[in-house]
Amino acid sequence: MFSGSIVALITPFNHDGEVDYVSLKKLVEYHVAAGTKGIVAVGTTGESATLTVEEHVKVVLKTVEFAEGRIPVIAGTGANATHESVTFSRLLNNSGIAGCLSVTPYYNKPTQEGLYLHYKAIAEESDVPQILYNVPGRTAVDLHPETVARLAEIESIVALKDATGDLSRIATHRELCGEDFILLSGDDATGLDFVRQGGDGVISVTNNIAAADMAKMFDLAKDGLFEEAEVINQRLMTLHKNLFIESSPIPVKWAATKMGLIAHGDLRLPLTPLSAASQPIVAQAMSEACIY
C-alpha cells in the first residue's frame, strides 16, 4: 500500500506569507515525473504547526486536485490535541487522500496509554488507512514498540513512520506487528539500511530536491539490488545530513528555491531563512549530490 520513496512535501509560501499554490502544483508535477511513490502533504516538513486548520485542509485538498490520481496523497493530520487530529480526519473524509500520517502528540508528553487512546480515537473517525509517526527528537515522547503492536491490531492502522534512526527496532516491530504491517523510515541518512533490514520504504525530506535519485534508489532496493542502490545513497549522504544543518524545512526550502522548484523559500515564524553561514554548506552538499 505504502512503500518506496515517499516525499515529506514542503509547503511553499509567497513573500506575503500566503500559500503559493502555483509552486505547489509545480512540486506535484515534479514528483509525478520523477517517479515518487507518494506525497505527504502538510506533515512536519510542510510546516503543519504554523498553518491554520483551514489552510491545512486546503493544502491537502489542492495537492489531491493537482495529483489527479497519478500519485497517492497522504495527509498529515498530527496535533498535540486529540480533538484537533480528529477534526482533521473528519474534514478530510471522502477527500481522495490515500491515508493519514499522524505524529505523536508533541510537548504534552502523554503516557503510552495516552498515545494508544489518541491514535484509537483518530482511527475511529477516519475512513482511510492510518500511519503512525514516531519522532522523539521533535516531540519529546517515544511511541514504544509494544504500543505500536497494540495499535496494529486496529484494522485501519496499517503503518509506522519511524524517525528514531534506531535500526534495531525494525526486527522488534516486525516480530510484534507481523509481516503485513508497513514500516517506513523517517530518517534519510539510514533509510536505505532501514529497507535493507526489512523496512518497506522512506518518507523523505531529501526527496523534495532529489526525487528521481530517491525513487531509483528505492526501486533498486525493492529488487534486492542494494549495491547499486548504495552507490546513489553515498552520493546523496552529505545532502541527507546537511538538510538538517538547521531545523527542517529551513535548508530544504532554500535548496528548492535555488533549483527553481518553488518561487520563494519563505517560512513562517518562528522558522527563519537559512543563515548565511549554512548556505555554502548546503550548496556544497547539493553539488556533491549532482543535483545542482
From TrEMBL:
InterPro entries: Aldolase_TIM, DapA, DapA-like, Schiff_base-form_aldolases_AS, Schiff_base-form_aldolases_CS
Pathways per UniProt: Amino-acid biosynthesis; L-lysine biosynthesis via DAP pathway; (S)-tetrahydrodipicolinate from L-aspartate: step 3/4
GO terms of biological process kind: diaminopimelate biosynthetic process; lysine biosynthetic process via diaminopimelate
Pfam families noted in UniProt: DHDPS (PF00701)
Localization: Cytoplasm
SUPFAM superfamilies the UniProt entry points to: Aldolase (SSF51569)
Residues annotated as site: Part of a proton relay during catalysis: T44, Y107
Active-site residues annotated for this sequence: Y133 (proton donor/acceptor), K161 (schiff-base intermediate with substrate)
A GO term from the CC aspect: cytosol
Site (L-lysine inhibitor binding): A49, N80, E84, Y106
Catalysis: reaction(s): L-aspartate 4-semialdehyde + pyruvate = (2S,4S)-4-hydroxy-2,3,4,5-tetrahydrodipicolinate + H2O + H(+)
Sites where the protein binds pyruvate: T45, I203
EC class name: lyase
EC number annotated for this UniProt entry: 4.3.3.7
GO MF term set: 4-hydroxy-tetrahydrodipicolinate synthase activity
UniProt keyword terms in alphabetical order: Amino-acid biosynthesis, Cytoplasm, Diaminopimelate biosynthesis, Lyase, Lysine biosynthesis, Schiff base
Family to which this protein belongs: Belongs to the DapA family.
Protein role: Catalyzes the condensation of (S)-aspartate-beta-semialdehyde [(S)-ASA] and pyruvate to 4-hydroxy-tetrahydrodipicolinate (HTPA).
Record's subunit section: Homotetramer; dimer of dimers.
The protein's name in its UniProt record: 4-hydroxy-tetrahydrodipicolinate synthase
Organism the protein comes from: Vibrio astriarenae
Source species taxonomy: Bacteria, Pseudomonadati, Pseudomonadota, Gammaproteobacteria, Vibrionales
Gene name linked to the record: dapA
